[in-house]
Amino acid sequence: MASLLEEFEVHALSGPLFSVGGHPVAFTNSALFMFLAIIAGTALMTLAMRPQALVPGRWQMVAETIYNTISKLVEGAAGKKAKPFFPFIFSIFIFIMFCNLFGLIPGALTVTSHIIVNLGLALLLFLVIFITGFARHGLHFLHIFLPKGVPMALAPFLIVIELISFLVRPFSLSIRLFANMLAGHILLQVFAGMIVSLLAAGWLAGLSVLPLIANIAITGFEFFVALLQAYIYTILSAVYLRDAIEMH
Amino acid sequence: MEGSVKLLGAGIAMVGSLGAGIGLGLIFSAWITAIARNPSAESKFSFIGYLGFAVTELVLLMCFVIAIMLMKSS
Exposed (0-12), middle (13-18) or buried (19+): which is A65, by Cβ within 10 Å? Predict the structure, then answer.
């Protein structure tokens, strides 16, 4: 069981660079892959749009498709007034998508398979929601916990339930992504272990092609899950942002 | 095989994925029916479909997280 979780370990790639509050901070493999995701995302959007052709070539079409999909998503889920938040939501999507995809490289660390990374992103999103809500609506923002047309007798229970479901949102966002990434990689490792066990069993060695085929199929599925989970995180971020902008 | 009650607990925790499986089947059946009835409005269904899939899948993943937590606890 311990060896299954070995690929998720964070280890330092350099010596301690500086210290924060007594804890030494080094450049870790987690930081490396976060940097790679940002560099890849920036390179995709800037280099692909260099030709600026009216009829897009292949790379320009990729960049434009991603831009248009997320733009329509933000407008559909969060409303027209959410246009200023589009760079934020887009950055979240690009970061999570590239972190998920780079995790599928053998030997690479999946940054989003650590709950703390996802929780940090989700809490950042909710900080933005809080600040936007209170800045735009003032104390009236607290009315999202009390939907219209509710009889006053029911109000205390409803406020508690709505408050709890609101506070659970960043955790559910982050756990969804974390568990999907964790489960996908553990599944790949389990099947890979089966290949090795069958090969070592001598007379069953021919059967080891079956877990290999399953592993290939699961890797393909994991590519789809990586993209889908980034898309779902972005949809839900936009939906939660709508509460801060419109429903007050 | 040497085990502990932790492993048993992890196994019982995964029974919750039954509900998630049924829920996912319901979501996709409604999604397929909606597309079949009105293929031209497919883009409207895709948003709520992915949303429903994600929220239902979360139940499955919560079960999995509890199982992992039980296996890794000391």
Answer: exposed
Residue A30 has pLDDT above 70, yes or no: yes
Residue A112 forms part of a structural domain: yes
In a domain, B61, yes or no: yes
Helix, strand or coil, per DSSP, at residue A201: coil
Whether residue B64 lies within 8 A of chain A, CB to CB, comes out as yes
Look over chain A and give the mean of its residue pLDDT values, rounded to a whole number.
Answer: 90
Distance CA A244, CA A133 (A): 4
Instruction: List pLDDT tens digits, range A95-117.
Output: 999 999 999 999 899 999 999 99
Residue B2 lies in a domain: no
d(CA A87, CA A65): 15
Q: How far apart are CA A231 and CA B22, in angstroms?
A: 23
In a domain, B10, yes or no: no
B50 Cβ under 8 Å from any chain A Cβ: yes
Q: Which residues of A touch B72 (CB under 8 A)?
A: 1, 5
Asked if A1 lies within 8 A of B50 by C-beta distance, the reply is no
- Residue span of the structural domain in which A149 resides: 24-245
- Inter-chain residue contact B47 with A235, CB threshold 8 Å: yes
Contact B47 A236 (CB under 8 A): no
Examine the predicted complex and report whether its ipTM is higher than 0.90.
no
Contacts of B65 in chain A (CB under 8 A): 175, 178-179
B56, B58, B74: best mutation site toward chain A, by most A Cβ within 10 Å?
B58
Domain count, chain B: 1
Domain count, chain A: 1
Q: Are A85 and A78 in contact (CB under 8 A)?
A: yes
Contact A61, A70 (CB under 8 A): no
pTM for the structure as a whole: 0.90
| pLDDT for res A236 | 94
Contact A235 B51 (CB under 8 A): yes
Interchain contact, A77 vs B57, CB within 8 Å: no
Angle at A75 between CA A69 and CA A79, to 5 degrees: 160
